[in-house]
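Lab manual, section 2.4: Encoding a predicted structure.

Procedure: take the sequence of the chain (288 residues), apply the prediction step described in section 2.3, and record the output as structure tokens. A sample record is shown.
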Amino acid sequence: MKSMTGYGEASIQIRGTKVTIQVRSLNHRHLDLQLRAPREYLSFEEEIRKVIRQKISRGRLDVFINRSQAKGQSRRLELNEELLGQYLAAVRQAKGKYQLSGDFSVSLLSTIPELFQVRDVEVNVAAERQGVFKILDAALTRLERAREREGRELKSDMQSQIRHLKRISTLLESRASETGTRLQKAMVTAKERDSSSRTDRDASDTANWILKGDINEEVVRLKSHVEALSRVLAEKEPVGKKVDFLLQEVQRELNTISSKVPHLPVVQLVLEGKERVEKIREQTQNIE
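Recorded output:
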């Protein structure tokens, strides 16, 4: 069992470029993937999403991919040598043609801005791609470990609540037996008291009354659902939706029991059972 909340991070240096991936997951009914990646990685962004979906099936997932180059390596100053050659050739031609004196100083180069251009360093996407998937796997692995740690704590608490539900089911089973015996005795007594004056309709009403107070079937189903909850928690794949379904079934049986036997001891057990169901449901919102 895994929680839906966790955090994982990994970094790598690739030819003077640092790439960091941060992954954060929160509760959500379905998989809601929010990926923020540099524009340089647009060509394989869908592959990144595919890898993530293969490992995460539920939760709000925020994935941040940050790319930063070492100081001074993101941009490069380039000299336009061809243009410089043309300038020098033109100066020499002017000196010869017009008998000019003086030398061409290097300092004059700074007065000709066209000679220099600042360019962004071209990104070698192919070289960085492998490193990105490597740290993506590492970040997701750390996220999974964090989710598993919290999942173990949630599982322990849910198992405790299920043990209480088993105890409640056993007590309700005992109450069902007592109620059934009491109703049978009441029916026999009623028959013996005024059998001569009872009509077929009276007999039918009595039978319906006994049937209404019989909760054996509901208790059997209740115990079955609670046992199924225990088995589901032991599964390795995501169990959140299964647990949610079984809790609905448990809730339905408890409601039926309380409506059929509105006696204080039974009602008290049903209320405690509903309280345990609600606590498990709260934890279910946090598991995958």
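Check your result against the sample. The two ends are 7 Å apart (CA to CA).
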